[in-house]
Amino acid sequence: MTNRDSKTQAMRRPPGGWQRVGWLGPGFLWMVSAAGSGELLFTPRIGAQYGYALVWALLVAVALKWVVNREVGRYTVVTGEAFLQGAHRLAGPRGWAVWMLALPQVVVAVATIAGLAGAAGTALVLALPGDIRVWTIGDVAYRFSRFLSIESCGQCPPCKLGSSAITENLERIETGVGDAGDLDVITGWLGHVTDGNRCYLAVEEQTMVTSIMRAFAEEFAEHLELGRCPRPRRLPIPKLIDLADGRAVYDDSFWRKQPDWTYAADDQDAPAHRQ
Ligand code: SF4
C-alpha cells in the first residue's frame, strides 16, 4: 500500500443527507472568513460604477473561482499538504508559481488595506452620532464665487453681473432663505457668465460652481430641505497679496471688500460670513 493510499483510507467519508445540515455552521464560518476585499470592496464598487456592463467578467470570475477553489481544496484533502507546497515543487525556476501568486497579492494588499480602512471609517460614521463633515461644500462654492465676483473687473458685463448673481443666490441658499428658484437663477447664469469673456476668471466661476453643484447636488438639496446650513462654519478664503521668503501675506480686510471694490464696515459684512 502506498503512502497516498493510506491517507485516503484514513479520511472520513463526507456527510450525506440530513447529516450535511450539521456542517452548515462551520460552512458559514468558513465562508465569512474567506470573504475578502474583493467581495467587500471591489465588487460592490465596480457594480456601482459600471452597472451591468461588466457582468460578463463577474460570470467568468465566478466560474473560474468555483473551479480553482474546488481543485485547491481537493488537492489539500487528497495530499494532506498546502496548495502552495505543491506549487513550490512545480517544474521550472525554483518557486516561480508561488511568486506568481504572491506578487499580485502584495500589490492588492496595498489597495486592500486602504479600502478596509475606508470601510472601517464608514462603519464608524454610521455607528457613531454626529457628522464628520465640518462644513458644507455649498459654503465653499459661495465663498469662492464671492471671491471671484468681487475680483471680476467688470469689463465684460456677463462676468461681473453673472458671478455677482450666482454669489447672491448661493448666499441665499447658504443662509437658509433660498429655494429652487435660486438654483434656477444660478443655473441660468452659469450658461452665460462666460459670454464675451476677456480672461479666465469667468470660466473659473463657471467651472467651479458647475462642478460643485453637479458633484454635491445632495448638499444643496439638504440646505433647501432644512432651510438652513446643516454645518455652518466660517471658512475664510483670504486674498493672497504677497508671497516672499516662504511667507504668505493675506488681505485680512478682504471680507469687507464690495463688488465695486469699496470696503464696507464690519457690521455690513456678507450675512453668510457672520457665524
Ligand atoms: S472675464 Fe476677466 S476681463 Fe472680463 S470682466 Fe471678468 S475678470 Fe474682467
Briefly summarize what is shown:
This protein is mainly alpha-helical and 275 residues long. Helix content is 60%, strand content 4%.
If you had to describe this structure to a student in words, what would you say it looks like?
The protein is mostly helical. 60% of the residues lie in helices and 4% in strands. It has a domain at 137-273: de novo design (two linked rop proteins). It has a two-stranded antiparallel ribbon. Helix 7 packs antiparallel against helix 8 and helix 10 packs across helix 11. The longest helix has 32 residues, at 96-127. The chain binds iron/sulfur cluster. Residues 152-156, 159-160, 197-199, 201-202 line the site of iron/sulfur cluster. Iron/sulfur cluster (SF4) binds next to helix 8 and helix 10.
